[in-house]
Design goal:
Layout: H1 5-20, H2 27-34, H3 38-44, H4 48-73, H5 77-83, H6 86-93, H7 100-106, H8 113-136, H9 142-166, H10 169-182
Helix pairs in contact: 1-2, 1-4, 1-7, 2-3, 4-5, 4-8, 5-8, 7-8, 8-9, 9-10
């Protein structure tokens, strides 16, 4: 088994969960993709819930780190806000997948509580970043920023879901542009 087997399993599980959600996580299939025995996955992740929890946690941690770097490396907070929809577009570009946490949110009643907590954290991280960035960009007053952040987040997630259901990334782009025209997202 490679020294990076745990990371390989997490990477493969992320792609599966973005395409098939929690229900699609299957140790036998993952083991085949990674090139290990299915029993070897249990060494790292004793259960499907443990695997899904680790994948969802890594997903929101990576998203949080990326969003912070986006803000830090943008000339102005407004530039970071304008680029925010790209973070959800990437999944669509990758074989018409969607955000892992969005998919698991849709399966919320069927995922274990520890997975639910990580999925909710992903949303919280995105809304908090949007709120902070909206205020920093002077696009929203601090008292109104959270409402707008939630609207932006849910609008983008919805656009991603619509585009995926039609396997049409141009629909995503069109919806994002309509959000800009309507003033939800900064133009």
């Amino acid at each position: 088994m490679s020294a990076n087997a745990r990371e390989d399993i997490l990477a493969a599980a992320k792609l599966v969960a973005q395409a098939h959600g929690y229900a699609g996580l299957n140790f036998r299939d993952l083991a085949e993709q990674v090139g290990i025995k299915a029993a070897s996955i249990y060494y790292y992740f004793p259960s499907k819930a443990d695997l899904a929890t680790a994948v969802a946690k890594r997903y929101w941690e990576d998203a949080a780190a990326y969003l912070e770097s986006l803000l830090k490396n943008s000339a102005m907070p407004l530039d970071a806000l304008r680029r925010y929809p790209e973070t959800f577009r990437w999944a669509l570009e990758n074989d018409n997948r969607i955000c892992l946490c969005s998919f698991m949110s849709a399966q919320f009643d069927d995922v274990p509580d520890e997975v639910k907590a990580e999925v909710q954290t992903f949303t919280d991280v995105n809304v908090a970043w949007l709120k902070k960035t909206l205020v920093a960009a002077k696009v929203a007053h601090p008292k109104e920023a959270e409402k707008r952040a939630r609207a932006i987040y849910s609008g983008i997630v919805g656009a991603q879901l619509m585009a995926r259901s039609r396997a049409d990334i141009t629909l995503y782009d069109s919806l994002i542009e309509s959000y800009r025209t309507a003033g939800l997202l900064p133009a």
